Amino acid sequence: MKRISLTLIALFMLSIPAVHSQDTRTNVLDAKQVAKLDLNGKWVGKRQQYSWDKKTFIETFEYEFDLKQEGDLVTGTSTIITANGEYADMKLEGVVIGNKLHFHEYQVEGAIRPEGKVWCFKSGELYFAKDGDNIKLVGATSSYMEVYNYPCSGGFTDLTKVDNSANLSALNTEFNANNLNLKEDLSISVYPNPFIDNATVYYNILNDSKVKVEIYNMSGKLVTTLFDGNEKAGNYNVTFNGKNTGDQSGLYIVKLSVGDEVYSRPLVQMH
Q1: Sign (positive/negative) of CA torsion 131, 135, 140, 146?
Q2: What is the DSSP letter of 195?
Q3: pLDDT band (50, 70, 90) for residue 3
Q4: Helix %, strand %, coil % for the chain, to 5?
């Protein structure tokens, strides 16, 4: 049996409160630093499952990614395993945007399902962070049922790259990451999320800037551009119509470019 992969056990529910972000302080890398990384290989660690009210963790799983990188695109497998030996191996794909890995699991390759529970596909964004000579993938991410994209309870992921030798030189010379907060100064949100037909992207611009709002799928393909132009400092919103996009997964990435800075958020469509 193959050990460890990315997916979360959760009880079947049709609606839950939105997953909140965990206020974690760590050495988060910026987009230029992430662009220098070699992501290929195994990442191992833990996955903690939220309670349904998101106030506590109710279970911890062993967790692993095995990634293959081609430019900004990432493919591979994930494995998750419980303390009792139940497991799931899943295919995953994703794309690096800015300093985050946006990913989703989309096919179960093998699994032992705990009685009365199901495995949920994981989807969302993970930050790249520096921990000594190690590179980590960390963050709170959502999870969804295998059909219809109904939400599961979600959780928090903390993975460390097993063989980081290819990145050590860059880590020691280029990376001077400060103790940064995972929260961003610029505000960007999407509502409703998950959505059925339409979702609105809300964002604020701190200074007069060149702005572009784009929607990508999890394969890194541009789906549509919602705005491209100059905007003055202030609050804005644009609407994404998810009908007839041709994307079957219903999983998207909102990419907001403000000058040289890039921000992103995951977006889920229920079928």
Answers
A1: negative
A2: B
A3: very low
A4: 5, 55, 40
- Angstrom distance (rounded) from CA 218 to CA 123: 10
- As to burial, measured by CB atoms within 10 angstroms (0-12 exposed, 13-18 middle, 19+ buried), residue 232 is exposed
* pLDDT per residue as tens digits for the range 249-270: 788 999 999 998 899 999 998 8
| Apex 240 CA angle, 238 and 245, nearest 5 | 155
Domains in the chain and their CATH numbers? 8-181 (2.40.128.120), 188-268 (2.60.40.1930)
| Residue 148: DSSP 8-state | T
Output the six-digit token pair for 111.
């699994």
Separation of alpha carbons 228 and 3, rounded Å: 45
How far is the C-alpha of 39 from the C-alpha of 59, rounded, in Å?
28
pLDDT of residue 17: 34
Say how far apart CA 38 and CA 91 lie, in whole Å. 20
- What is the sign, positive or negative, of the torsion defined by CA atoms of 237, 242, 243, 247? positive
**Helices assigned H by DSSP within the chain:** 31-34, 168-173
Q: How far apart are CA 231 and CA 236, in angstroms?
A: 9
Q: Residue 176 CB: number of other CB atoms within 10 A?
A: 8
Q: Which of 193, 270, 258, 231 is nearest to 31 (CA)?
A: 258
Give me the phi and psi of 62, to 5 degrees please: -70, 150
- pLDDT tens-digit profile of 226-244? 999 999 999 999 999 998 8
Does the pTM surpass 0.85? The reply is: no
Q: Are 46 and 63 within 8 A, CB to CB? A: yes
* Interatomic CA distance for residues 201 and 188, integer angstroms: 7
The pLDDT value given to residue 9 = 34
